[in-house]
Each structure stands twice: as structure tokens, then as C-alpha cells.
Amino acid sequence: MAEPHATMWKGWMVMAAVILGVGTLTLALARQPATRAASQGGRPRPVATASARIPVTGMTCPVCVASVKEALLAVSGVETADVSLERREVVVRYDERQVLLSQLVAAINRTGYRAGTPIVPREER
Amino acid sequence: MTLDAFLARFSGLPHGSLWALVIATLAGVVASAVCPCTVPVGLGVAGMAGSAGGRDGRASRAIAVTFFAGMVVNLAILGAVAGRLGAMLTGAFGRDWALSMAVVSFVAAGTAFSLPRLDSERLASWRRTGLAATFVYGFVFSLGTSAAPLLLLLTVATAQARPQYGFLLALAFGVGRGFPFLLAGWFGGALMRFARLRAWARAVQIASGAALLLVGVYYARAFTVLS
To answer: What is the ipTM of this complex?
Structure first.
């Protein structure tokens, strides 16, 4: 008698796995245009926008890239964060009235990766 | 310690020596130790090995070795085409890779949950397909997580070397990089066989599938952030 129950139970587990998988990916895909819109101007642009190039060591894969990007975007005043695994650096655009470079460095270091000395373009100094 | 710091100690890596290959293997182990993907995917591999394992443990060991082989073969190929590694470090590639890993992990989770429903004949035929799929899983995983550390290693070690030497270094690096996953699969399979003896089969099944589901969610989340 236990066999049909076990089969039914495992069937439910497979169905749950499929629903969770499809659901997560659908949510991820659905969020994509909104995120892109935000990075292209959906978010109100700060007035005093500055940019800085920060070297980051310790990143090994796209998940590391995602962690650094997420940490920087969570800092109030950061507009965009373009992380490059190849150059092992991040280019951040931020509102310099709201956020200091040291806060950006601290945000990166909190993720477990190591931020180097930020480089600010000459014309923005 | 980061991989950069580890390699900085060996900036005068003796070119073409056996010692350099040993360092490359150790660098692979360090790369696995510092990569955030190692723990979730290691758990996933242990889960796959456990759910596929028979009583003698040969099937679970085969899963562990096949995933390891997928990683090593991928790294050997990456070493041979070192000049093109940059293509695997772009944002677009990282996003697509995270999505691929999420899809493969969800499929693996579904399979782990459904395996006990198969009769022994179908289970035997699944194992052949499962091994091929596990090899692909290891290959794809390595493609996204190993290109950047390998580029760093080759930059340090092979500035003046021949391409064949880069291939050898990458192979040695791959052995070190894949070793923790080989261990995870091997011992995961053994642990779950032990658990089966105590009629914990259902709990083992949930743990295996849940580990793979979490891996899928982990990569889907990374995909979302990168999109």
C-alpha cells in the first residue's frame, strides 16, 4: 500500500522542482527589461554624477561579478556599476554629493573581494 | 588568501619545470577554495552522486569522476586556446552562462527527484545518459568559473612560453580545480549509501534534489543581477 503513496509523493516533488525552476527563471527574465531600463535612465539621474574606476582582485567568475555589482548598486547614490572580469575592475557612476569613494571601496570589501585605489578621471578631479 | 596573492608568491615560476605544474595544480585548488560557486555546486555534485548511486557505489563514483573529467577537459581546451580566453570574460557571456547553469541545475534537480521512480532496466539506461549529462555539467561549469583564474595563471607563468606549455599548465590547473568536486562526489555518494542502509532513502532524495534546486536558484539570481 505504501508504494502508490511513495510514487505520488515523488511525483509531487518533481512537479515542485519544475515549478520552482520555471518560476525562478520566468521572474528573472521578467525583471530583465526593468533592470536594463533602470541602468539606461529609468532611475532618476543624480545631478552631480561622477565616475571612478576601482580595481577589484579576487573575482573568479560571473557570480563574483554579480556580487560586486549588487553590493555597489545597493549603496544609495550609485547610478551604475559596470564590473569587468577581464580587466578585474569596476567603473562606477555615482552622485558625489551622496556617496564617498571610501564607501564604494568599503562596499566592495564587504563582499569578500579586495578593492584597490580608485582612479578618478582627470577632468572630474 | 586570493588567487592573485597565491600566484604573487611564485612570480619567478621556473619555466617548463615539474615544480611549475605542481604550483599550477595547487593554484587550481586555491581557485576552487576562493570561488563562491564551489560550495553550492559541490553540494549539487554530492547530491547527484548520491541519488545515482547503486549499492556498490560504482555509479556514484562514476558521476564524481565524470564531472571532474568535464572540468579537466574544458580547462585543457581553454589552455590550448588561451589567446581567446577574453571572449569568456565578457558581461554577455557571464549572463548567458549563469542562465545555462540555472537551467542545467534545475533539470538535474528534477532528475534527482524522479530517479527512484525508475525500474532497474530504465535506471541502467539513464545512467549512461546521466554520465554524458554530468560531463557536460562539469564542462559548462568550468567554462564560466575557470577562465578568469586560468588567464591569471597563464599571465604569470607563461609570458615567454610555448602554447603546448600553456596546455600542460591548464591541464594541471584543471586537476587541482576539479579535485574538490571529485572529493565531494566521491564522499557524497559514500555518505548517501551509508544513509540508505538506515532506511533514510527519502531524506537523502530530498537533500539531493534540494541541493540542486538551490544551485539553480543561486545561478538564476546571478543571472538576474547581471541582466
So the answer is: 0.79
